[in-house]
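Appendix B: a complete holo record

For completeness, this appendix reproduces one full record from the ligand-bound portion of the collection. The bound molecule is zinc ion. The inputs are the chain sequence and the ligand SMILES; the output is the full three-dimensional arrangement of the complex, encoded as structure tokens. No fields have been trimmed.
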Amino acid sequence: MRPVIENLKAKEVKVGRELAEAIIETRTLKATLDTPCPECGSPLRIMKSRTTGKRFIGCSGAWTSNCRFSLPLPQLGTIKLLDSQCQRCGFQLVMTKRIKMKPMISCPRCYVTKLNKNNVYGGD
Ligand SMILES: [Zn+2]
Ligand SMILES: [Zn+2]
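The structure of the chain with zinc ion bound, as generated:
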């Protein structure tokens, strides 16, 4: 009987942790960024696409001023908005935390700039 009980306990702990992660993620999904939209000045929010289920940073002016500004976010782990800004572009920094991995701090705007650099702008 003993191994069975131990097994159950281990399972309980795992479920509890997953639940906690889900709660943090739901809270973060409603978060508003400190940095306003660089294109229209409306607040930026963490949103989730209804069609793809992917999360991203979207402009709340999308409904009022038709602003299409958006930035991609990592799809794995929990996301936390930090109180500090990127030294290069001034955008609010985002921390991604995955279980058993070191937290990763990144600037969503510089990430996109880096992606575009090679094929669109060809420079800084
Ligand atoms: Zn905007
Ligand atoms: Zn940046």
